[in-house]
Amino acid sequence: MQRVSYRTSRGFSIFELIIAMGLATVVLGGALALTSQAIGISDMVSQRSDMQQNGRVAINMMALDASLAGTGFPTSGVQLPSGVGSQDSYLACDSAGCYVTNNVYTAERLYAVWPGQAGGPTINGVATDVLTLVYDDPTSEFDQYVLTDIEANGKDITFDAATTPAYNDAVVGLKVGDVLLLSSANGSAVGEITEVNAGGKVGFSPGVGNGELRFNQSGAAFGSVKSIIHPPGPPTFSPTSARRIYIVTYYIDNSDPDIPLLMRQVNAHPPMAVAEYVENLQVTYDIYDALTFVGTAALDDAGGLPNQIRKTNISVTVRSPGETMIGQDFQRITLTTSVGPRNLTYRDRYE
User: Fold this and answer.
1) 18 assigned to some structural domain
2) Is residue 200's pLDDT more than 50?
3) Beta-sheet pairing, 187-192 with 130-136
4) 10-19, 92-101, 176-185 — which is least confidently predicted?
5) Which helix (H) or strand (E) holds 136?
6) Each residue of 282-337: pLDDT tens digit?
7) Would you say 205 and 195 are in contact if contact means Cβ atoms under 8 Å apart?
8) How far apart are CA 149 and CA 152, in angstroms?
9) How far apart are CA 275 and CA 10, in angstroms?
10) Apex CA 93: angle with CA 88 and CA 96, to 5°?
C-alpha cells in the first residue's frame, strides 16, 4: 500500500510533459496564425476603405469641375497675349513658381478645356496627365454694371460703386491672384489681378513677380486688356464688363514619393491637395467637328483641337496608404468617369 501511494504521487513523466507541451504549441501556433491572418485582413479592409474614399473624392471633384467647363465662357475661347511684344502665357503657376511641365498655352488661346498630355510626373514608369478647365464663377455678379474706367495701357480698371456685392467684399470680393474676363464690343481678354485698391480700382501689373500667369502683357499686339479698349485712353472706351473666371488645373504632386497627392490649383492661387495616394491621372477627350459632322473618341491630346472637345474621360489610380500584411504590397484601384460638359456638348442652333 505504501508503494502504490508513492507511485501515484510522483506526477507526470517527462514523456507526458513533452507530449502536452507539443500539443499546447500546436494549439497556440494555430491561434496565433488565425489571429495574425485576422489582423492582416482587418488591415487590408481598412486600407482598401481609405483607398476607395480617396479615389471617390478625387474622381468626384474632377467630374464636378469638368461638368462646369465652358460655363459663361466664350465657346471659341479667348485670345491670349500674342504677336509683337508678347511672351508665352502660363498655366498652373503662382508666386512660388510653376507646378507642371508643358505649362505653356501653345495655341496662345485660352479654351474651356486644355489638355495636358504627359504634363505631370512619371510614376511607376507612367507619365501622368494634367487637366485644365475654365468656367465662370457662378457667384460673381461684377458685370451687372459696366466698368467706369480703364486706363489706356490696360493696367487698371475701375468698377462701378453700385456693384453688389462690392468688388472688394471681404467674403466674395476680388483677391490678388484672381482672373477676370473682360468683354466689350472689341472682343474679350483675361487679366490676372495683382492689386485691389480703394475707389473701385483693380490692377493688372505685368513683370516678374506680378502676373504669374503672364496674362498681363500691355505691350502685346493682341490679346491684352489694352487691345479691347477703343478708342484708347480714358474716359472714352468701349463699354466693358468684367467677370471672375476660374482656371482650374489638376495634377499629381510626387515631391514626396511616399504620399503622391492629387492637387487642384485655381487661377494664380496656391494649389490645394484634393486626395492622397493618387499615383496616376490619365485623361482622354472625345471631339466633334460641327462643320464636317465627324467625331473622334479617346484622343490623348484632343487631336490638337481643344475647341472641339465634347467629352472628357478621366481615369484616376489610387493606392493604399501602406503595404498590406498579406502579400506585402500596395493595393490599387482605378476609377474612371466620362463627363460631357453641357456648355460644350450641346449647342443652341437658334442662336
Assistant:
1) no
2) yes
3) unpaired
4) 10-19
5) strand 130-136
6) 999 999 988 888 999 999 999 999 999 999 999 999 998 877 655 567 888 999 99
7) yes
8) 9
9) 69
10) 125
- Cell triple for residue 323? 503595404
User: Does residue 231 register a pLDDT over 60?
Assistant: no
CA dist 200 → 142, 173, 197, 238, 317 (Å):
11, 11, 7, 19, 46
Residue 27 placed within a domain: no
pTM value?
0.85
What's the rounded Cα separation, in Å, for the pair 344 and 335?
23
Q: Are 278 and 318 in contact (CB under 8 A)?
A: yes
The pLDDT, as a whole number, for residue 235 is 47
Read off the pLDDT of each residue in 119-126 and give the average, rounded to a whole number: 94
Number of Cβ within 10 Å of residue 230's Cβ equals: 13
> Three cell numbers at 239?
463699354
Range of the domain at 72: 48-345
What percent of the chain has pLDDT above 70?
86
Contact criterion met (CB below 8 Å) for 336 and 314: yes
CB atoms within 10 A of CB 52: 15
Domains in the chain: how many in total? Answer: 1
Q: Is residue 32 part of a domain?
A: no
Band the pLDDT of 138: cuts 50, 70, 90: confident
Find cell 474614399 and name the residue.
Answer: 53
Find out whether the peptide bond into 235 is cis, omega within 30 degrees of 0.
yes
The DSSP letter of residue 173 is: S
Is residue 162 in some structural domain?
A: yes
C-alpha span between 66 and 114 (Å, rounded): 11
CA distance 77 to 86: 19
